[in-house]
Amino acid sequence: MLPHDTIGQAIGLVFKSTFIAIVPRILIGVIPYFVYVGIKKAISSEKKLVYGSIINVIISFIMGFGVFAFFNKMVSEGKIGFSVTVAQVIGAVIGIIVFAAIEYLFMNKDAKALGFITAGISGAMTNTLLVMGSIYAFYRIPYSEVLQIDPSALMGVIGGIISFNGVIEAIVGAVIVYLVGIVLDKIKPAGVYAGKEMKINAVTSESSKKQMAQ
Known about the structure:
5 helices, 214 residues, mainly alpha
């Protein structure tokens, strides 16, 4: 029979591993939904322009920083020839381009684009932050030993992973959710609402015929 503390450690290990494996995957679908609903309400309010611009600035910063983090990592590893300053300029330019593009869509085309993009970013960041945060909270010492670093330096390593991998995932998530979202948004009214409208019209027509017959 196993000692009590060993059983406790085994149960704790199962709980921690289950939490890391399951909870982020559940919340990756829940949090973006509420983010999308919140954004949709914000851009439908009287302060639409203010809220829209604030959200756009945040999204553009994340996108620009993600591009900078990607090139900065390449520079630090010696895989590309230009300097960190060039990486900063590229990140800033991308951020400005993203801001202008989203602002154009938001103001002139489709305000829902802002909701789709924000939902994609929040979903990707939810997964990254929860997984990496849980690893730090539950497995700080073992993870440090695997990486062969001091536990006090682990936060910096995890921060680097989040700023590089996490932001790149957020950019990809924003693009995918936007592209899928605008397609589904066009399909849904044609498939669901039109169908309901046809049923309502059919019922109304039938009721009218009965009344005329009487």
